[in-house]
Design a protein that fits this description.
The complex is a heterodimer of chains A (366) and B (304). Chain A is of the alpha+beta class. Chain A has two domains: 233 residues, Rossmann fold (3-Layer(aba) Sandwich), CATH 3.40.50.300; 119 residues, Beta Barrel (OB fold (Dihydrolipoamide Acetyltransferase, E2P)). Chain A contains eight helices and 20 strands. Chain B folds into two domains: 46 residues, no CATH class; 229 residues, MetI-like fold (Orthogonal Bundle). Chain B is built from 13 helices and no strands. Chain B is globular, with a radius of gyration of 26 Å. Chain B starts with 13 loop residues before the first helix and ends in a 9-residue tail after the last helix. Classes of the chains: A alpha+beta (366), B mainly alpha (304). The interface between A and B is medium-sized, with 39 and 27 residues.
Chain lengths: 366, 304
């Protein structure tokens, strides 16, 4: 606690959770520091330990070992109601027998806040999420989006240092999700408190977060900004979980001062690319995002790969083209802007070229 | 149910169309399926019941009078029995609720397997005859029985069981327990348990979370079970007869005595009518209360 940085609002130290009668821990040795005001997302497939970790922070699950610090203070022996953390549940958990007003006033009443303060705080909080006029409604008389906003308001009205959110947009349709994502972002910006958001939706994680923590099989795979995770994934899992990726395995060689990846379907010239420090020639895996693959009608250069178009997915402003290489591998290509004028057709033979500028070397999984 | 409008009917047959539509309107689909039961109810319940009501308004000379009602309500011994009946029914309801709530709550927490076992344990008494169970209680409640020895052991030997209202109450509570557990469980299993977690995350102690976030949601089930138990308890006959004594009889025993021993159909009828009206009154009040509870589940805005 001596070296506690005042900007760290939350710190997890070697947090583990192992349920009795199970071989593998649900959460294994999680280390994490969250800065004040940061928007952090726990991203991972179901069963990856992200919700378990959130529930350990909230106090609903007791860690088997490790420490949780909030503002430098160990909260191990604090029950949930003394942790002073806001939480939005997956199904909102609004109290159906109470009005919107009473739901939002609940945390203040429990804290024995004076009545006139409650009145002004609840009114202000409801105004912030545009729910003025809905005070006397019951939760079931509200739309899904409105319920979501009530849950958010109720969890924020007592000014907690951290807001925890467990897949809060999971039950909503895509349009509404995107609208509420913007709203959550706005609330985060306006209040400046720390948000901890759990989701399995990588697009949502990218859209909302300052920092994304990628979970898999009970551990943290990588922590970084959305751009870092997209451009510089530290593992195959992260590369594949966030966005589309083309992973090419092959022998990395240095020929006449230039790097070349000898993949199954042919060489990929990596002009202008420098490998990360410590990487030498040998078997490696390189990642190319779909927008870094170029597609053309015929093979201009000898080194271009030949491939057959398998699928063209129209996405409005862009198209995703899935091609099969000669060795049977699959490559995803994203076409946008001018490239859309030459739409390939299914079954057409095309040439592929990889742009080396953004090529990224994936280190082998531990 | 919307009536079918027959568009191909001849315009001059307007009356026919109307009468036919009225007929359709008044005949819900499948009504004929209920006819056997309706006939049974009318012949064996409604007619004798109304006959009893009619008789309660005639005195022994055959002229119309309210004598039976007046003498019932003016006899202190009868009023005492009426009061005792309501007190026993109310106590029985409260004790049932106190036992059933934790039980039903446990059922919502259990794994499906354990839940099935708990449910069977509740339903088991249903599969045994009421007589058999009451005689079983006769054995248990005897002065030489296990319950009495247990009471003696903890120094409560002075508490009389058999031939007293205590014994009747104990047996009635056990017999009526399923009628409380089932509606209550049905209600509790629909309550989202994450409401309890939410309340705690918002600063409520586990106890406060239960009373503010969970318990109010269980009131409809609690009231449904209470109304069932209370009404059944008001009319209980076999159990008080076997386990109680004439000195502390209940309304149903009194009515039977009037009718079958004294052949006084008028006063028996009057008692039955008063009991029925009071029961009805209780249901009305209880249902009002449930609705009021719903409306006031939270406090009005600004008043909190």
């Amino acid at each position: 606690m001596v070296d506690h940085d005042p900007d760290d609002v939350l710190e997890l130290q070697r947090i583990c959770k192992q349920y009795a009668g199970t071989d593998t821990p649900a959460v294994e040795a999680i280390d994490l520091k969250v800065r004040k005001g940061e928007f952090v997302t726990f991203l991972g497939p179901s069963g990856s330990g992200k919700t378990t970790t959130l529930n350990m922070i909230a106090g609903f699950i007791t860690p088997s070992s490790g420490r949780i610090l909030i503002n430098g203070r160990d909260i191990a022996d604090l029950p949930p109601h003394k942790r002073n953390l806001g939480m939005v549940f997956q199904n909102y958990a609004l109290f159906p027998h109470m009005t919107v007003w009473d739901n939002v006033a609940f945390p203040l009443v429990e804290r024995k806040v004076p009545k006139d303060v409650i009145r002004s705080k609840v009114a202000a909080a409801l105004e912030m999420v545009n729910l003025t006029g809905f005070e006397k409604r019951r939760p079931r008389e509200l739309s899904g989006g409105q319920q979501q906003r009530v849950a958010l308001t109720r969890a924020l009205v007592f000014d907690p240092p951290i807001l925890l959110m467990d897949e809060p947009l999971g039950a909503l349709d895509k349009k509404l999700r995107q609208r509420l994502q913007l709203e959550i972002k706005r609330v985060h910006r306006e209040l400046g408190i720390t948000f901890l958001f759990v989701t399995h939706d990588q697009e949502e994680a990218m859209a909302l977060s300052d920092t994304v923590v990628v979970f898999d099989r009970g551990g943290i795979q990588q922590i970084g900004t959305p751009a870092e995770l997209y451009r510089r994934p530290q593992s195959r899992f992260v590369a594949e979980f966030l966005g589309d990726s083309n992973l090419l395995d092959g022998a990395l060689r240095r020929v006449d001062g230039r790097w070349v990846l000898e993949a199954k379907d042919g060489p990929v010239h990596l002009d202008g690319w420098t490998p990360p420090e410590g990487v030498t020639e040998g078997q490696h895996c390189l990642m190319f995002r779909p927008e870094d693959v170029l597609i053309s009608d015929s093979a201009d250069a000898v080194d271009d790969w030949k491939a057959t178009v398998r699928e063209v997915v129209y996405l409005g402003s862009e198209e995703r083209v899935i091609v099969a290489t000669q060795s049977g591998g699959t490559v995803t290509v994203r076409l946008s802007g001018d490239a859309l004028r030459h739409r390939p057709e299914v079954g057409q033979i095309v040439a592929l070229r990889f742009s080396a500028r953004n090529a990224w070397l994936i280190r082998p999984d531990k | 149910m919307r009536p079918m409008i027959e568009t191909d009917e001849h315009p001059s047959d307007r009356n026919a169309v109307v009468s036919r539509r009225t007929l359709v309107r008044w005949r819900p689909k499948g009504l004929h399926l209920a006819v056997p039961l309706l006939v049974l109810l009318v012949v064996f319940f409604a007619i004798p019941g109304l006959e009893l009501v009619r008789r309660s308004f005639f005195d022994s000379s055959g002229s119309l009078s309210l004598d039976s009602y007046v003498s019932f309500l003016e006899t202190p011994a009868y009023r005492k029995i009426l009061l005792r009946t309501f007190v026993v029914a109310a106590l029985c309801t409260v004790i049932c609720a106190l036992f059933a709530y934790p039980y039903a709550y446990l059922m919502t927490l259990s794994t499906p397997r354990v839940r099935r076992i708990l449910l069977v344990l509740v339903l088991l008494p249903f599969w045994t005859s009421l007589m058999v169970r009451t005689y079983a209680w006769l054995v248990l409640l005897q002065d030489t029985g296990p319950l009495k020895s247990a009471l003696n052991a903890i120094g409560l030997g002075g508490l009389e069981l058999i031939r007293t209202t205590n014994g009747v109450l104990i047996a009635m509570t056990q017999i009526l327990l399923p009628f409380m557990v089932l509606p209550l469980y049905n209600n509790l299993q629909k309550i989202d348990r994450s409401d309890l977690l939410a309340a705690q995350s918002l600063g409520a102690t586990p106890r406060r979370a239960f009373w503010r976030a969970y318990f109010p949601q269980s009131l409809p089930g609690l009231f449904a079970g209470s109304v069932l138990v209370f009404i059944l308890a008001l009319g209980f006959y076999i159990t008080p007869v076997i386990l109680g004594s004439p000195q502390n009889s209940m309304m149903s025993q009194l009515i039977v005595r009037q009718v079958s021993e004294r052949l006084d159909w008028a006063s028996g009828g009057a008692m039955a009518v008063v009991l029925a009206l009071l029961t009805l009154g209780c249901i009305v009040v209880a249902s009002r209360f449930v609705k009021v509870q719903r409306a006031f589940g939270g406090v009005e805005s600004g008043e909190n």
